[in-house]
Design a protein that fits this description.
Blueprint: H1 27-30, E1 37-46, E2 52-62
Antiparallel strand pairs: 1-2
């Protein structure tokens, strides 16, 4: 997750275990981020041969409540 797509800094980066295919975020991951801030994210698949495909991307708003 980044603030802008041109940013070099990644705010949150996760690697998904291929055995479980679970992507999990903890409250501590976002507790320091300002509420109502908009960030961008993507989910990439890196194949064994090194090829990378982005198959999900979008924006997320950090809020104090789940809607």
């Amino acid at each position: 997750m980044k603030k802008n797509k041109t940013d070099e800094e990644t705010i949150i980066l996760r690697t998904i275990n291929p055995e479980t295919m679970v992507l999990k975020f903890e409250p501590s991951d976002t507790k320091e981020l300002p509420m109502d801030s908009i960030y961008i994210y993507d989910v990439e698949l890196t194949r064994a041969n090194g090829d990378v495909s982005t198959f999900i991307k979008g924006r997320v708003i950090v809020t104090d409540e789940v809607y």
